[in-house]
Amino acid sequence: MEDQSGILLESGTNELEIIEFDIHKSKFGINVLKVKEIINPLQITPIPHAHPNILGIIQLRGEVMPVISLEKALGLTPNGVQNPANEKFIVAEFNLLKAVFHVHHVSKIHRISWNNIEKPSELYDVDSSQVIGVINNPESMILLLDFEKIIVDINPEAGIHVGQIKKLGERERSSKKIVAAEDSPLLRKLINETLSMAGYENVEFFENGRDALAYIESLANERENIYDEVQLVITDIEMPQMDGHHFTKRIKENHRISKLPVIIFSSLITEDLRHKGEQVGAADQVSKPEINELVLKIDQHIL
């Protein structure tokens, strides 16, 4: 698979394409937008004292990238004979970094709606979970993985740090209200702490775009002026039920709430994919984990 920048999916359709792959007999998925290419395994150079989940590094077209064993990262144990001829490297880009994931087999691409991706059960939806969604495919169940968390588990410095806001200096408290859509409980907590430290203490969180949109539209129906109630929206992109692009598009199509500035805060903000947010009318886009930049953009756009 080559560069995905020419993907045919129109922005804001609430659909995505996932690549299905296997680790042993378990099936997992990764958003196509995260994938640069899929290649046959290359020779790996081990790194002394590296994290146990890192197999080593490879050089690909002049770039040095870490190779991560998803088998180790997911804590899976062998349950049968594997065929080395089927093994692949998934070269991915997100969160302003590139990494290679070693998998046992890549099978197919699915085009699905976020409506068909279920939120993980509360039985395993905890901070330590590496699953962000469950796809109940007719043939099998596919788990959509949280690749950002897999990276942060290896290198905590790659995540959001509340302390970064201290670099912005003393800030005035703001009564302005922000609506935020983010499916990760851990990230909701971190973003809430960060915005509070930055002076934005009036933030209403939702775990997907569908619920956030219903809340904003209900306020618009009840109030004469929605902009007295909500002044800005922050949204992730990858969320079950309704993704951030479709959420943004729905806001901009509704004349009663269309002036609300929407900032997309996602690991999928790259130069190749930035146009997707622009197409649906986002006021700005910030890549995780650049939380300082997010606060500065809020300062700039909040009504």
Automatic annotation (TrEMBL):
Keyword terms: Phosphoprotein
Modified residues (4-aspartylphosphate): D236
Record-annotated Response regulatory domain positions: 177-303
CheW-like domain mapped to chain residues: 15-156
Keyword Phosphoprotein: yes
Gene3D superfamilies for this protein: 3.40.50.2300, CheA-289, Domain 4, SH3 Domains
Signal peptide: none
Phosphoprotein in keyword set: yes
Matches recorded under InterPro entries: Chemotax_regulator_CheV (IPR024181), CheW-like_dom_sf (IPR036061), CheW-lke_dom (IPR002545), CheY-like_superfamily (IPR011006), Sig_transdc_resp-reg_receiver (IPR001789)
GO biological process: chemotaxis; phosphorelay signal transduction system
Protein name according to UniProt: Chemotaxis protein CheV
Record organism: Lederbergia citrisecunda
